[in-house]
Amino acid sequence: MTKTVYLMRHGETFFNQQKKIQGWCDSPLTDKGKNQAIIAGQYFTENNISIESAYSSTSERACDTLELVTNKDYKRIKGLKEWNFGVFEAEHEYLNPPLPYGDFFVPYGGEGELQFRERVAKTLYKIMEEEEKQTVLVVSHGAACRQFMRSWAHTSKVDQKERLGNCCILKFEFKDEAFKLLEIINHDFSGL
Protein backbone atom coordinates (compact mmCIF):
# COMPACT_ATOMS: atom_id res chain seq x y z
CA MET A 1 0.00 0.00 0.00
CA THR A 2 1.23 3.48 -0.87
CA LYS A 3 0.93 6.06 1.90
CA THR A 4 1.46 9.82 1.83
CA VAL A 5 3.14 11.74 4.61
CA TYR A 6 3.10 15.53 4.79
CA LEU A 7 6.11 16.56 6.85
CA MET A 8 5.74 20.16 7.97
CA ARG A 9 7.85 22.70 9.83
CA HIS A 10 6.20 24.63 12.68
CA GLY A 11 5.15 28.28 12.39
CA GLU A 12 7.31 31.25 13.36
CA THR A 13 8.21 31.50 17.06
CA PHE A 14 9.48 34.30 19.30
CA PHE A 15 12.98 32.75 19.16
CA ASN A 16 12.82 32.64 15.33
CA GLN A 17 11.91 36.31 15.40
CA GLN A 18 14.75 37.12 17.83
CA LYS A 19 17.29 35.00 15.85
CA LYS A 20 17.88 32.65 18.78
CA ILE A 21 19.09 29.05 18.47
CA GLN A 22 16.07 26.85 19.10
CA GLY A 23 16.44 23.10 19.23
CA TRP A 24 15.21 21.28 22.31
CA CYS A 25 14.40 24.56 24.05
CA ASP A 26 11.07 26.03 23.07
CA SER A 27 9.29 29.32 22.57
CA PRO A 28 5.69 30.07 21.64
CA LEU A 29 4.35 30.85 18.19
CA THR A 30 4.09 34.51 17.26
CA ASP A 31 0.83 35.86 15.82
CA LYS A 32 2.51 35.57 12.42
CA GLY A 33 3.38 31.93 13.18
CA LYS A 34 -0.23 31.18 14.10
CA ASN A 35 -1.43 32.77 10.85
CA GLN A 36 1.18 30.79 8.88
CA ALA A 37 -0.24 27.58 10.36
CA ILE A 38 -3.78 28.60 9.42
CA ILE A 39 -2.68 29.34 5.83
CA ALA A 40 -0.84 26.00 5.67
CA GLY A 41 -3.99 24.28 6.91
CA GLN A 42 -5.94 25.88 4.06
CA TYR A 43 -3.65 24.06 1.62
CA PHE A 44 -5.17 20.74 2.73
CA THR A 45 -8.74 22.07 2.55
CA GLU A 46 -8.28 23.72 -0.87
CA ASN A 47 -6.75 20.52 -2.30
CA ASN A 48 -9.39 18.20 -0.77
CA ILE A 49 -6.73 16.38 1.27
CA SER A 50 -8.18 14.59 4.26
CA ILE A 51 -5.64 14.10 7.03
CA GLU A 52 -6.37 10.65 8.45
CA SER A 53 -3.67 10.52 11.10
CA ALA A 54 -1.38 13.10 12.72
CA TYR A 55 1.85 13.25 14.72
CA SER A 56 3.88 16.04 16.26
CA SER A 57 7.19 16.66 17.92
CA THR A 58 6.72 17.03 21.68
CA SER A 59 7.80 20.68 21.41
CA GLU A 60 4.99 23.15 22.09
CA ARG A 61 5.65 25.10 18.89
CA ALA A 62 5.03 21.98 16.78
CA CYS A 63 1.93 20.89 18.72
CA ASP A 64 0.43 24.38 18.54
CA THR A 65 1.07 24.49 14.79
CA LEU A 66 -0.59 21.11 14.25
CA GLU A 67 -3.62 22.16 16.28
CA LEU A 68 -4.09 25.19 14.01
CA VAL A 69 -3.76 23.05 10.85
CA THR A 70 -6.22 20.31 11.85
CA ASN A 71 -8.56 19.45 14.71
CA LYS A 72 -7.60 15.78 14.37
CA ASP A 73 -6.34 13.96 17.46
CA TYR A 74 -2.60 13.39 17.25
CA LYS A 75 0.32 11.63 18.91
CA ARG A 76 3.30 13.49 20.35
CA ILE A 77 6.60 11.76 19.52
CA LYS A 78 9.95 12.70 21.12
CA GLY A 79 11.95 11.35 18.17
CA LEU A 80 10.52 14.16 15.99
CA LYS A 81 12.15 16.89 18.12
CA GLU A 82 14.61 19.35 16.65
CA TRP A 83 18.41 19.00 16.77
CA ASN A 84 19.76 19.22 20.32
CA PHE A 85 22.22 22.15 20.29
CA GLY A 86 23.47 21.61 23.86
CA VAL A 87 24.66 24.76 25.68
CA PHE A 88 23.98 26.81 22.53
CA GLU A 89 20.23 26.48 23.11
CA ALA A 90 18.53 29.91 23.35
CA GLU A 91 21.77 31.73 22.46
CA HIS A 92 21.99 34.10 19.50
CA GLU A 93 22.25 32.51 16.02
CA TYR A 94 25.52 34.35 15.29
CA LEU A 95 27.18 31.73 17.53
CA ASN A 96 26.30 28.96 15.04
CA PRO A 97 29.28 27.57 13.14
CA PRO A 98 29.20 27.60 9.32
CA LEU A 99 27.17 24.82 7.67
CA PRO A 100 27.43 21.87 7.69
CA TYR A 101 27.41 21.62 11.49
CA GLY A 102 28.62 18.01 11.60
CA ASP A 103 29.58 17.10 15.18
CA PHE A 104 30.20 20.70 16.31
CA PHE A 105 27.58 20.56 19.10
CA VAL A 106 28.64 17.18 20.58
CA PRO A 107 31.34 18.54 22.96
CA TYR A 108 28.77 21.08 24.18
CA GLY A 109 26.14 18.49 25.16
CA GLY A 110 24.32 18.44 21.83
CA GLU A 111 23.80 15.90 19.04
CA GLY A 112 26.02 15.07 16.10
CA GLU A 113 24.52 15.57 12.65
CA LEU A 114 24.41 11.89 11.65
CA GLN A 115 23.09 10.87 15.08
CA PHE A 116 20.30 13.46 14.71
CA ARG A 117 19.53 12.45 11.11
CA GLU A 118 19.29 8.80 12.10
CA ARG A 119 16.97 9.61 15.03
CA VAL A 120 14.52 11.52 12.82
CA ALA A 121 14.71 8.99 9.96
CA LYS A 122 14.13 5.99 12.25
CA THR A 123 11.24 7.76 13.99
CA LEU A 124 9.44 8.62 10.75
CA TYR A 125 10.08 5.17 9.32
CA LYS A 126 8.60 3.52 12.45
CA ILE A 127 5.55 5.83 12.33
CA MET A 128 4.83 5.01 8.68
CA GLU A 129 5.53 1.28 9.05
CA GLU A 130 3.02 1.02 11.90
CA GLU A 131 0.49 3.50 10.52
CA GLU A 132 -2.63 1.92 9.03
CA LYS A 133 -3.99 5.12 7.50
CA GLN A 134 -2.89 6.40 4.09
CA THR A 135 -2.66 10.18 4.59
CA VAL A 136 -0.52 11.35 7.49
CA LEU A 137 0.49 14.80 8.76
CA VAL A 138 3.70 15.13 10.79
CA VAL A 139 4.71 18.50 12.29
CA SER A 140 8.36 18.85 13.20
CA HIS A 141 11.20 21.37 12.77
CA GLY A 142 13.38 22.97 10.09
CA ALA A 143 16.60 21.02 10.62
CA ALA A 144 14.66 17.82 11.30
CA CYS A 145 12.82 18.18 7.97
CA ARG A 146 16.09 18.96 6.16
CA GLN A 147 17.91 15.97 7.67
CA PHE A 148 15.01 13.69 6.75
CA MET A 149 15.21 15.00 3.17
CA ARG A 150 18.93 14.17 3.18
CA SER A 151 18.23 10.63 4.42
CA TRP A 152 16.11 10.00 1.33
CA ALA A 153 17.78 12.31 -1.21
CA HIS A 154 18.81 9.26 -3.28
CA THR A 155 15.15 8.46 -4.11
CA SER A 156 14.07 11.85 -5.47
CA LYS A 157 15.19 14.71 -7.65
CA VAL A 158 13.02 17.23 -5.74
CA ASP A 159 15.12 19.61 -3.65
CA GLN A 160 15.26 23.13 -2.28
CA LYS A 161 18.62 24.76 -1.60
CA GLU A 162 17.21 27.66 0.42
CA ARG A 163 16.24 27.29 4.04
CA LEU A 164 12.94 25.50 4.65
CA GLY A 165 10.59 28.27 5.74
CA ASN A 166 8.10 28.16 8.58
CA CYS A 167 5.11 25.93 7.76
CA CYS A 168 6.81 24.59 4.61
CA ILE A 169 5.33 21.18 3.75
CA LEU A 170 7.32 18.27 2.32
CA LYS A 171 5.08 15.73 0.57
CA PHE A 172 6.57 12.23 0.69
CA GLU A 173 5.33 8.96 -0.73
CA PHE A 174 5.97 5.90 1.46
CA LYS A 175 5.94 2.67 -0.54
CA ASP A 176 7.90 -0.60 -0.35
CA GLU A 177 9.68 0.54 2.82
CA ALA A 178 11.08 3.67 1.12
CA PHE A 179 10.29 7.38 1.14
CA LYS A 180 10.28 9.53 -1.99
CA LEU A 181 9.97 13.32 -1.85
CA LEU A 182 7.29 14.28 -4.37
CA GLU A 183 6.84 18.00 -3.76
CA ILE A 184 7.86 20.93 -1.56
CA ILE A 185 4.92 23.20 -0.77
CA ASN A 186 5.88 26.77 0.13
CA HIS A 187 3.10 29.18 1.03
CA ASP A 188 2.72 32.87 0.27
CA PHE A 189 3.03 34.64 3.60
CA SER A 190 3.77 38.06 2.08
CA GLY A 191 0.48 39.45 3.37
CA LEU A 192 1.31 38.64 7.00
TrEMBL record:
Transmembrane segments: none annotated. InterPro entries: His_Pase_superF_clade-1, His_PPase_superfam, PG/BPGM_mutase_AS, PGM_Phosphatase. Gene3D superfamilies: Phosphoglycerate mutase-like. Pfam families: His_Phos_1 (PF00300). SMART domains: PGAM (SM00855). It comes from the Bacteria. This is Histidine phosphatase family protein. It comes from Carnobacterium inhibens.
